[in-house]
Amino acid sequence: MEQHVTPCEDSPPPLMYRVERPVFNEAYLHTQLLHPRERSPKTIRQRLAQQLHCSSERAKAIALSFLPILTWLPSYPVKEYLFGDLVSGLSTGVMQLPQGTFAVISLMIGGVVVREAPDSMFTIQALNGTATNTTVFIDTEARDARRVHVAVVLTTLVGVIQLVLGLLRFGFVAIYLTEPLVRGFTTAAAVHVFISQLKYLLGIQTPRFSGPLSALHSVTAVFSDITSTNVTTVIVGVVCMVVLYCVKDLNERFKKKLPVPIPGEIIVVMVSTGISYGLSLSENYQVDVVRTIPSGLLPPAIPDFSLLPNLVTDSIAIAVVGFSMGISLAKIFALKHGYSVDGNQELIALGLCNFVSSFFHTFAITCSMSRSLVQESTGGNTQIAGLLASMVVLLVVVAIGFVFQPLPQTALAAIIMVNLLGMFKQFRDIPALWRTSKIELAIWVVAFVASVLLGLDLGLLVALGFAILSVIYRTQSPKSIILGQVLDTGLYCDVDEYEKAAECTGIKIFHSNSSIYFANSDLYLNALKEKTGVDPVHLQAIRKARKRKLKKESAERESQNHKSPQKMSAVVKLDVELGVTHEVVAGGGSQNHLEVQGNGQVAETHTESDSEETRFLEPLCPVHSLILDWTPVNFIDSVGAKAIKLVIKEYAAVDVCVFIAGCSRTLLAELRTLQFFTGVATPEMVFPTVHDAVLHCRRQTAPPTIPAMQ
Questions:
Q1: β-strand 583-584 against 492-494: which pairing, if any?
Q2: pLDDT at position 113, please?
Q3: Is residue 483, in this structure, part of any structural domain at all?
Q4: Phi and psi torsions of 575, nearest 5°
Q5: Which of 240, 351, 624, 687 would give a disulfide with 693, using CB separation of 3.0 to 4.6 Å?
Q6: Beta strand residue intervals within 495-569, DSSP E
Q7: What confidence score (pLDDT) does residue 583 get?
Q8: Residue 573 — pLDDT band, cuts 50, 70, 90?
């Protein structure tokens, strides 16, 4: 009588999984069940025709990929986004006026122009009345003009490099910028920007530093000149920081009640500019202000390309750092706001901006951390905010630059520092990564430390190298386990972790979460032998030891037989009536016994020597089958394939069969390309699932069925 459990009315009945099929192996699947499609390889002409095929839909898709603004601008939500973009654009534009886009890029370009146009090239000696009295001075006008030419040519070359890399789809390297690397790198960039603003906050003058340890040199220079701090400058900067922080806190606390965020940056800039102008902070208290802002635009001109050979290496470094900074911040904001970024599009955009604008005497641009944070925190939603910020800068340069001449530099430093707080909150990643992933924590720390100490260019290379090494390390130290079957299911789990998972008698199922290639094939085989406890070399040694022992014992018996001649006496008594079987007694050294059976026939039974032979023929270990679970294996190379075939042969020599389970069709295609299924390896030993392999092993080793006696 069967009992059926009635499920609760509130819960649906459980889904049942019932499949009845034969055990499949790869030979059957490939020849009988699966029929690969016959595909003729495409010629080069066909491939080119497919790639160069042109249609209206393809042209539209290409245009939209190069100009993504066409996809969202027609549906721009004016009521929802316009005010936030307006406030954000004004705030960002005002901040952009007195400083360069990104401090690290500015330092890198500054180092190049100083190297290519040093002061020593523009020294002039002037006579003072007599031939013996001369005065040496620097022609600053010629020096600055030369440095501008160097910066313009450098910008042109940076743009060309970025544009070419974008067209060659080099943006794929952005996938190697993992989140821990990006967050460590951008935190280090925030440290560089923060350090660069210290001298403006304190009102002191320090030299510029670039290259490795530049951050430490800058901090040392600030603290060595700390006694010359301008107290008024510090007061203005601290007040601006407090006001701005409070405004941002109010915006965060009441963001659901406020129709639009309070434009704290604009308020700080306007109030500090008015106070500076009214109190004459620059003249009366020596507060450093923006001062003269050049007005007007220079006419376009062709850069001096004769400087190109000396600038190639520097241009590559600046192009890579600029792209890395831009894509890193883009990834952070994309993750925060739920959209995706295209690395190739970023390269093309940066390249076009740098190349075209260089003909108008502009500076190499990249994504500014501080301005981006200001734009995002003040309510910016789209690129309209960036467009408005550019229009503000253009308007100031052309017409109203004089309005912002009294703006204190310390107020701008305060705005930048407050907006960097969001980046410094990324230090919270350290305890979180410590709990979740030590390897990702190491990537974060290496990216941060290397970028702070070596600079963003070298630090990025070190971080990328370390991230790639971490991938190699993971393949070199995978987790290897032995699987066991969960009772009455086709599921197989780690026997050390789950109580319900039990090993199959005589079968070891080995699972390692890595691919098999030249760098880890030996490690894979070592882990296989260690976890299963079945080492073919050790078993072969045991077999050879048994052979030597048997040979020695046989020699000793033969020696004894030569010393004492063999004597045989047999007494056979037949008692037909009682049906008794009597033993035939063999004299000394006898190796055989004879039995007289009830039917009168004599049967031979083996004793001592045969027991030795039987003991030699016993299995060397209780395991008769090994199953390699290749579910996590993504690829295998020729070295790995040869190693697996070798270990199959080694185990076959000690009567242990090796089977493979869970191969993907892609992996099987690779194995066929590598001619894996020759010799000891055949498709019959490959199964689609672990359960198929287990059932095959059980049937193969099951004892033969003995027919019942009639």
A1: unpaired
A2: 87
A3: yes
A4: -120, 90
A5: 687
A6: 501-502, 507-512
A7: 40
A8: very low
